Amino acid sequence: MIESVLVANRGEIALRVIRCAKEMGIRTVAVFSEADRTSPHVLCADEAYPIGPARASESYLATDRLLRAARRSGVEAVHPGYGFLAERDDFAEAVVGAGLVFVGPSAATIRAMGDKTEARRRMAAAGVPVVPGTDGPLASAREAREAAEAVGFPVVLKAVAGGGGKGMRVVRGGEDAGSAFEAAAREAAAAFGDGSVYVERFLERPRHIEIQIFGDRHGGAVHLHERECSIQRRHQKLVEEAPSPLLGPEERRRMGEAAVRAARAVDYTGAGTVEFLYAGGEFFFLEMNTRLQVEHPVTEMVTGLDLVEWQFRVAAGEPLPLRQEKIPLRGHAIECRITSESPFDGFLPATGTVGEMVVPGGPGVRWDGGIAGGTGIGLHYDPLLGKLVTWAPRRTGAIRRMERALGELRIDGVATSAPLLRRIMREPDFLAGRLSTAYLAEHPDLFETGVSGGEGEVLAVAAALLEHTRRQGRTAPRIRRAGMPLSAWQRGGGGGGGWEPRPGGQRAGPFDPGRAWAEERR
Q1: Nearest to 256 by CA among 267, 244, 270, 266
Q2: Residues with catalytic roles
């Protein structure tokens, strides 16, 4: 088994990996930028090393700085987390070239699946259904228009090296193809350093269903069932659940088998996700994510398996822990992404400092978060603060549990997506499982800013309490769950008794920012 690992990521992602590694007896090393020096993932790790300024390009995306930290700490392996460098073939090659174990697929696999047109060709050859479209990048606006007319409108122009909705344009008529091509190519070049785009038929109101896959170095490959990820905004997922309320046993079997064929077609090793679009009773390959996904906790909740532990075991050369027929599927799980955004103001990013924080609990409730009281929320990184996950024997129970948990969740000091997510849990189409990628666009009432019912009552009570304390000449009460001690981060955030990482991975005494950074600069 791997004995030590550097986690080349931050926030809840790094914290998730570090916790699993500790339970497995693996020594953990965190890295941090100037903006993250007191983040929970830093304080949870056995050692922590500074890697540069807050700007990601000078810290978490700087391969040389990450490898320097790996050499200084003497680790055996590097786990990329998910996001940042997790799907960069050059980073995987650099890690292996430095004599370290890369906890993920090979650089060749990442490269093949990172090129969307190459991925389409391989999937078609493996018998995996693909959306009709071009098999190579388009050379000009004229070629884009001709290809779109051949495929049939509407079409979508997509970045060859892209993902997350960047470098994408929907085209509904030939007169728009040229300008859409130029806009998509420009955005793709800015986001990925590659302006190549291709064309696919645009599926109206599809469902987004993905299959969790795993492969090992001994030729083994399995799937761990599906996740429904149809509720999105600008191609970014908001709510995920497992299993999909749409699929029956036969469709689940066919999609799972197609995903395993996709994994075998590229000699896949480790955790990955094969994403499909489902429309009109058919499913089509969308892309393969060569990493663990943000939404993996819902799969863990319905299978009872730890996917990060599987990653470490496969990276160490062990065979997959279970055969396909032994992988369970129990109950239903839902995940809501809690982001630092204002959903009722066009999802504008929100900044601030986290104040009081209450995390919901109870049976079947899981919180994967990377923040604590005193954490500063800026604009340097992805707005994901944490993931709230619920499980119950049936979908209706998981939804009710999620609504209750969202009502308990409290993150003072920064606006979050939680109020919108709670409204979704009550919406009739969601309750009935009538979902598509157009769900939010088709439910504008979810974004109405007026409050009513339970929300209005809560605000009225809060306003009355604030007015009462003002008249009594007291400050507003600070509420914390009864019996909950202050965390190390809460104690340290304001200069109290928290812990601070030093260069070389040593732990210092009480937090003194000036002294700490002076020592780091020396």
Answers
A1: 244
A2: 291
